[in-house]
Design a protein that fits this description.
About 45% of the residues lie in helices and about 15% in strands. It is of the alpha/beta class and about 375 residues long. Strands 4-3-5-6-7 form a five-stranded parallel sheet, sandwiched between helices. Strands 9-8-10-11-12 form a five-stranded parallel sheet, sandwiched between helices. Helix 2 runs antiparallel to helix 9. The chain is globular and about 55 Å long. The protein binds 5-amino-5-deoxy-1-O-phosphono-D-mannitol. Its main location: cytoplasm. It comes from Enorma massiliensis. It is found in: Cytoplasm.
């Protein structure tokens, strides 16, 4: 049932191009974006003036990406919050608040409790889940299914990609309803979104050796830092979580601009710094942060855009992804970090599918 792969994690990572395609099937109807299971009319959507994305773990990281997209495209203020925090404070909720609950399993206790609380306070709740008929699906006003199919490895990979694609669709819809993007712009972006399926495949076909070399450079470390800016920072958080949960190597993620406010003190010769330096509006800024790490002897590993030769001047290891619009970069740039975490875990003799102390569904608080 592992389909010829040595573990479920690798099988599921390789399913990601299919997940992108399946999540988009039926979403462009007669040239219009269609999310008919929303449970909210366009009039109701148009009234939304605040969005909270609530989730845990990897699903929370998908929320960090959604915040960037919703604020960039739809210009609606969006906060991302761990469900375990959201449920115990008194968030500002009005009838024009949209709460988006993201949960692969659809049964995470904190996320469910947060949904219930938000609905009592009058918010509209929209669920994004991988499990049909799950509590999150049942208790939300509307739901998008991520089409990842059953995920067995405890570390989420393909469901994360399904969540990010689904949240991208929701962001596009909000932008269209709010009149911030035209239907023509939405169609163009939708097409580009679909291209990420082939771009992920390209990573599998061409970057395996680069990932392996980078993993060798990390495997004996005691700690690693993941950095990036904007979308890159969100990707860095997911990369760090993957590495720590399956390889038991301590990893932390920082927005690259925060390095000099503390974490740079950790850097000594050989310390791995893993950076997302894809071509984006903040590329130069991230590179200059990396130079400061390089000057202190860090081992620099980057995920960069194919064709960027200059980055080799500071990076010890480069893993390339195809050129992609910054908005869609998380869908491809996360993939090398999933592969890196898995290789490091295997080199450290860890069980990548069943990491210690973790469960696939966290149904207790
Ligand atoms: O099923 P959920 O998406 O609600 O689960 C949330 C987290 O427990 C989950 O993402 C966890 O962090 C994974 N082990 C990450 O790989």
């Amino acid at each position: 049932e592992k389909g010829g792969y040595p573990d479920f994690m690798l099988k599921e990572i390789h399913e990601q191009p299919r997940v992108v395609r399946d999540t988009l099937v039926g979403r462009m109807v007669g040239g219009e974006l269609d999310i008919d299971e929303l449970g909210l009319t366009y009039e109701e959507l148009n009234l939304i003036d605040r969005v909270y994305v609530i989730a845990c773990g990897t699903s929370y990281h998908a929320g960090l990406i959604a915040k960037n997209l919703i604020e960039m495209w739809a210009r609606i203020p969006c906060e991302v919050e761990a469900a375990s925090e959201f449920r115990y404070r008194n968030p500002i909720i009005t009838p024009s608040t949209l709460v988006v609950a993201v949960s692969q399993s659809g049964e995470t206790a904190d996320t469910l409790a947060a949904i219930r609380d938000a609905r009592i306070k009058g918010a509209k709740v929209f669920g994004i889940t991988n499990v049909v008929g799950s509590p999150v699906a049942r208790e939300s006003d509307g739901v998008i299914y991520t089409k990842a199919n059953k995920e067995i490895a405890v570390a989420s990979t393909k469901s994360f990609i399904g969540q990010v694609v689904s949240l991208t669709l929701l962001s596009l819809l909000l932008a269209q309803v709010k009149g911030k993007l035209t239907t023509g712009q939405v169609r163009m972006l939708f097409r580009e979104l679909g291209d990420t399926a082939e771009q992920i495949q390209w990573i599998f076909d061409t970057q395996a050796e680069a990932v392996h070399e980078a993993a060798l450079a990390c495997k004996d470390a005691h700690s690693a830092l993941f950095v990036g800016r904007g979308m890159g920072a969100a990707i860095a958080h997911e990369g760090a979580l993957k590495l720590k949960e399956i390889s038991y190597l301590h990893a932390e993620a920082y927005a690259a601009g925060e390095m000099k406010h503390g974490p740079i003190a950790l850097i000594d010769p050989g310390f791995p710094v893993i950076a997302v330096t894809t071509k984006s509006p903040t590329y130069d800024k991230t590179v200059s942060n990396l130079k400061e790490c390089e000057a202190r002897g860090a081992k620099i590993i980057v995920v960069a855009t194919e064709g960027d030769e200059d980055i080799k001047q500071i990076a010890d290891h480069v893993i390339y992804i195809p050129p992609v619009r910054d908005a869609f970069c998380p869908i491809t740039a996360t993939v090398p970090l999933q592969l890196l975490a898995r290789e490091v875990a295997i080199m450290r003799d860890c069980d990548v599918d069943q990491p210690r102390n973790l469960a696939k569904s966290v149904t207790v608080e």
